[in-house]
Automatic annotation (TrEMBL):
Coiled coil spans: 137-246, 309-382, 504-591
Subcellular location: Cytoplasm, Cytoskeleton, Cilium basal body
Molecular functions per Gene Ontology: tubulin binding
Organism: Podilymbus podiceps
Family, similarity comment: Belongs to the IFT81 family.
Residues of the IFT81 calponin homology domain: 3-126
Protein name: Intraflagellar transport protein 81 homolog
Swiss-Prot/TrEMBL keywords: Acetylation, Cell projection, Cilium, Cilium biogenesis/degradation, Coiled coil, Cytoplasm, Cytoskeleton, Differentiation, Phosphoprotein, Spermatogenesis
Classification via PANTHER family: INTRAFLAGELLAR TRANSPORT PROTEIN 81 HOMOLOG
Keyword Coiled coil found: yes
Gene: Ift81
GO CC annotations, alphabetized: ciliary basal body; intraciliary transport particle B
Keyword Repeat (UniProt): no
Length: 676
């Protein structure tokens, strides 16, 4: 309890209450102050309840609070007697009642705000059945229900959008980032345009580049169309293969079957399908509907605690025990009479269960067969894609096996040749190793001889000198060729540079003039841009002022139109009421009795007289019933006692018959034993 009060005080000291309570001041609050505090919390959840409870009666306050707590699905602890104590405590402002309510409300304020908001539109207004007989009232009620369903759908969409992760801040950041990227791309395009403008025939090149881009896009679209057509062709081929397979199966079935077998097969299939349609599927559908109904009831119920679940389990166990006792009593009561019927019922239930099991097995086998056929078609299409041909059958398969055998013999022959080549390669590799070893031994002997003669390393140096001289000669040849090529290249480059200088001289002169002209035009453009910006700012301010004025005039026009329509409606209502009053007065003062009977006053007078007569008759009838109530109750009691007496006699008679039958059977058995 102290933790609960501490939580309440902390929540009340925060936004939006700002009460500045502590445990002592909160505990010292009077009942009226507690009720006002509870009303403030309810007013925060639903603004309609933000009132001063001193300005209304205690019964009205309690009724209003109980209504809102019922809408918010608050469950008071305890049974029905505790519920009456809860209502009384809510009226008097009892702390043991108010504190749990405050704790529950402050725990889930946001959720309850949403629930109270939805209750304003989703709590259905109950219309009596006698009023719904009127067509206008029924139509309005139907429109009301349709609007309620539309509100539900819109609220769901709104919640989905809120939880989808999209926020206005993120969208604005994305827009600003995209605008920055756009500005960067515009600047980059301008720089590229300035670079391209110096190139000759840049317009033609740009046009060619644009055409190239269009052709590439067209190529991509054509490639996509080609891929789509390939997919369509593949699906069409699969459908064709399935149709051909079904046709072959039907041909095989027709060749090997007779009309009697086909009719028998069709009858079996029709019986199976009719069993599915009439018995199995409706039973499953009914069970699914029942489970869905119970699940909806469970969802509609408020959240339950562990104690509530425990109470429900105890009730379920008690009900199951009562059901078992009733079943045992029924079996004991009807066992002698219905023994044969119970055996037949058991056999029928066993047969029905077997029938259901076999139907499920048949359904599973059909599904497995269809899945196997789909896998076979898929494997056939894959084989067709990989090998380029269909699965072989019959003579084609035999021809394919013979071809594989011939290829197998050819493969074995080639494998023997590869083995011989591999053996020869091993021999040659071994010969190479022996020669390398001999070469190393000779090199070692040569080195030993050189050491004896005092010229060690002579052979190695000789080989290196020969190799270096060969490399040097090759490098000299390459240098000579490279120098010749470089001199020729330098000559060509000088000629090209001279030619380019000569061709670019007039272009450079023209470019200087164009640059000077460009600077002048840029300066003029800046001046014109400043003038344009100032003019645009003035026009924009004028436009905004005019828009505000037009907006105000439009709002005024709409207001005047609504006033005009309201006045016209009021005028029509008053004219209708005036006309009805004139007709009523005319009928009332008329000398014709038939006309006077049509007057509303006369009709209500007749209805009042009829109701008074009916009330007098009912009072007389009530008086008669009260006078005869005592004798009638005695007579009912006598008939009940008589019925119990007759029931007792019937049971005694049945017991006497059973005992007589058992005695007769025992006597017959004794006689049989004596005869034996």
């Amino acid at each position: 309890m102290s933790d609960q009060i501490q939580f309440i005080v902390e929540k009340l000291n925060q936004e939006p209450f700002r009460k500045s309570y502590n445990l002592i001041t909160f505990d010292s609050l009077e009942s009226m102050q507690l009720l006002q505090l509870l009303n403030d919390v309810l007013g925060e959840i639903d603004p309609k309840h933000a009132v001063d409870i001193r300005e209304e009666l205690p019964e009205q306050t309690a009724k209003r609070m109980l209504t809102l707590l019922g809408i918010l699905k608050y469950k008071p602890p305890g049974s029905i007697s505790d519920l009456s104590a809860f209502r009384q405590g809510l009226v008097t402002g009892s702390k043991p009642v108010i504190h749990p309510v405050l704790h529950w409300l402050l725990q889930r304020t946001n959720e309850l705000k949403k629930r109270a908001y939805l209750a304003r539109f989703l709590v259905k207004l109950e219309v009596p059945a006698e009023f719904l007989q009127d067509d206008m009232v029924a139509d309005i009620n139907k429109q009301y229900e349709e609007l309620m369903e539309a509100f539900k759908n819109l609220h769901k969409e709104c919640e989905q959008l809120k939880t989808s992760g999209l926020s206005t801040a993120e969208i604005r950041r994305d827009i600003s980032a995209m605008e920055e990227e756009k500005d960067q791309l515009i600047k980059r395009v301008e720089r590229l345009k300035k670079r391209v403008e110096t190139v000759q025939n840049h317009q033609r090149m740009l046009e060619i580049a644009r055409q190239l881009r269009l052709e590439k896009e067209r190529e991509e679209s054509l490639a996509q169309q080609k891929q789509e057509q390939k997919n369509q062709l593949f699906h069409a081929e699969q459908r064709l293969q399935r149709a051909q397979l079904q046709l072959k199966e039907m041909h095989h079935a027709v060749v090997d079957s007779k009309p009697e077998s086909l009719m028998k097969k069709l009858e079996e299939e029709i019986n199976f399908n009719s069993y599915l349609v009439t018995e199995k599927i409706p039973r499953e559908l009914e069970s699914k509907k029942n489970s869905a109904y119970f699940l909806q009831k469970v969802v509609a119920e408020p959240a339950m605690s562990q104690s509530d679940l425990h109470v429900l389990e105890i009730k379920i166990n008690e009900v199951n025990a009562q059901m078992n006792q009733l079943i045992e009593k029924r079996m004991m009561k009807y066992e002698p009479i219905d023994s044969k019927f119970s055996m037949y019922r058991q056999q029928a239930s066993i047969i029905s269960r077997k029938k259901e099991a076999k139907a499920e097995e048949l359904q599973a086998a059909k599904e497995e067969m269809s899945s196997t056929e789909r896998q076979m078609l898929q494997k056939t299409s894959q084989a067709h894609e990989l090998e380029g041909s269909e699965v072989l059958k019959g003579d084609e398969f035999k021809h394919y096996v013979n071809k594989l055998r011939s290829k197998n013999t050819f493969y074995k022959k080639k494998r023997l040749e590869i083995a011989e080549i591999t053996a020869e390669y091993g021999i040659l590799q071994r010969t190479e190793e022996l020669l390398k070893q001999r070469h190393e031994a000779i090199q070692q002997q040569l080195q030993a001889i050189e050491d004896k003669k005092g010229i060690s390393g002579y052979s190695y140096t000789q080989e290196e000198l020969e190799r270096v001289s060969a490399v040097k000669s090759e490098m000299d040849e390459m240098k000579g060729r490279t120098l010749d090529n470089m001199s020729e290249m330098v000559r060509k480059l000088n000629a090209m540079v001279a030619e380019k200088k000569a061709s670019l001289a007039p272009v450079i002169k023209e470019l200087r003039q164009l640059r000077q002209k460009c600077q002048e035009l840029t300066q003029e453009c800046d001046e014109k841009k400043i003038q344009y910006d100032s003019c645009a700012a003035g026009l924009e301010s004028n436009r905004s002022a005019l828009e505000q004025e037009v907006k105000g005039l439009l709002e005024e026009c709409v207001q005047e139109e609504s006033n005009y329509r309201y006045i016209n409606c009021m005028k029509r209502n008053l004219e209708i009421q005036l006309q009805r009053a004139k007709e009523e007065m005319k009928a009332y003062v008329s000398s014709d009795p038939q006309e006077r009977r049509r007057a509303i006053r006369e009709q209500y007078t007749r209805m009042i007289l009829e109701q008074e007569n009916l009330g007098k008759k009912l009072r007389e009838k009530q008086k008669v019933v009260r006078e005869s109530h005592g004798p009638n109750m005695k007579q009912i009691k006598m008939w009940q006692d008589f019925e119990q007496l007759m029931e007792c006699k019937r049971e005694c008679f049945l017991k006497q018959q059973n005992q007589a039958a058992i005695g007769q059977v025992i006597q017959e058995g004794g006689k049989d034993r004596l005869v034996l």
